[in-house]
Amino acid sequence: MSKVVIIGAGGVGNVVTQKCASHPEVFEEILLASRTLTKCEKIAKQVKENYNKDIHIQQIDAENVPALVSLLKDFKPTIVINVALPYQDLCIMDACLEAGVHYLDTANYEPKDNPKFEYKYQWAYQEKYAQAGLMAILGCGFDPGVTNAFCAYAQKHLFDEITQIDILDCNAGDHGHPFATNFNPEINIREITQTVRHWQNGKWVETPPVIEENCIHFTFNYPEVGPRESYLLYHEEMESLVKHIKGLKKIRFWMTFSDTYLTHLRVLKNVGLTRIDEVEFEGCKIVPLKFLKALLPDPASLGTNYKGKTVIGCIFQGFKDGQKIKKYIYNICDHAKAYQEVKAQAVSYTTGVPAMAGAMMVLKEIWKGKGVFNIEELDPDPFLKTIAENGLPWEVQDFSGSLPE
Ligand code: NDP
């Protein structure tokens, strides 16, 4: 009897819940818990319509560890899928330890007052999880997540040594809003406005944020969607890949942005609306970025008229049998198709499917271990097969194009 608790009823939580419900042979009972119960009710209704399955729902503040421990002890799940916000990661990891439950998330912990994406806080749980005989699986969305699995796959099957990885994340979709973010606006804007870093010859190299004029970008010709401007960005999976991919000399992450998006972001930053410190407003203290989040479209609502596709993948350079080779592994996901299936846009879809698949790997005891794991440390084959069977097919190609030096 496998029970799962899903925490977070946002865009990603919706996809994870529906995808788990589509596999009753693995996820026999589902409890969806989140801060706002009405959002859980809406997803539960959708699950009933699509899969004729009843799920449990419960209101929870995941930062209240005793309340979460008691929820877990009552329901007795085998695993928690955390798709709330990165701020809650450590509280949920603590609660899982106390209740003896495996843990999986899609984004690394981030302190509220310091938008630095670092694994150090969660890697510090290694001993505690190992001693408890539990698994904590970190970053099991698309990027991080599937991109890490692509790296593990390339290392296992395609290369003797990988020297360079370029991760390319393209959203060539159009949601019809002048400005909106595809996942939680607060987390998204914190990620995009920070100083950029990539890793080269054993050290991190800093370059200007994507909203600065002298930021680094180039045009990449993406499969099916064509040329798009792609900007160098820091992304959390690079920190673990640098540790786990043998022989790696360089790793970079690129993301596409439209001019309109960057212009909006520049203006919002210039007027102070992306600030994360408290400011005094008419006798109250407000955090401008949280206020901005309240004004922007809910990412879960974007799917309705979203057209176009996402293309996310990795380009690898390295050696096989003494020959220099280049390979490109990627997935293409269609916003409208995702909406048709689970009423979600492709960014939520490409995150939710791998989170479900990762939990399935644990429940089927395909991924086994004690301690804290990043995805590239686990067998990529069954995981990549499962995401392909569940709406995220992927391709491997020889790469003959060019990338900036
Ligand atoms: P949303 O903002 O749509 O959803 C987050 C949900 O978490 C909301 O329902 C929110 O509740 C709930 N929540 C927030 N705080 C708490 C709390 N203290 N206790 C309980 N529930 C809480 O975000 P997304 O669904 O877009 O993203 C979810 C996660 O997925 C994020 O961590 C994001 O960084 C990650 N992500 C990962 C990607 C990847 O590829 N690896 C890509 C995209 C996203 P309420 O409704 O009350 O606000």
What does this structure look like?
By secondary structure, the chain is an alpha/beta fold. The protein has 2 domains: 3-138, 3-Layer(aba) Sandwich (Rossmann fold); 146-344 and 394-398, Dihydrodipicolinate Reductase, domain 2, CATH 3.30.360.10. It has helices spanning 11-21, 37-51, 65-75, 89-99, 120-123, 126-132, 146-158, 185-192, 237-244, 259-270, 288-295, 335-342, 346-363, 380-389; strands at residues 3-7, 29-34, 56-59, 79-82, 102-105, 135-138, 161-171, 196-200, 203-207, 217-222, 226-233, 250-256, 279-281, 284-286, 309-320, 323-334, 371-374, 394-398. Strands 7, 8, 9, 10, 11, 12, 15, 16 and 18 form a 9-stranded mixed sheet that branches. Helix 1 packs across helix 13, helix 7 (146-158) packs across helix 14 and helix 13 (346-363) crosses helix 14. The longest helix has 18 residues, at 346-363. It is globular. Bound molecules: NADPH dihydro-nicotinamide-adenine-dinucleotide phosphate. Residues 7-13, 34-36, 39, 60-63, 83-86, 88, 106-107, 141-145, 183-184, 187, 299-300, 347-348, 351 line the site of NADPH dihydro-nicotinamide-adenine-dinucleotide phosphate (NDP).
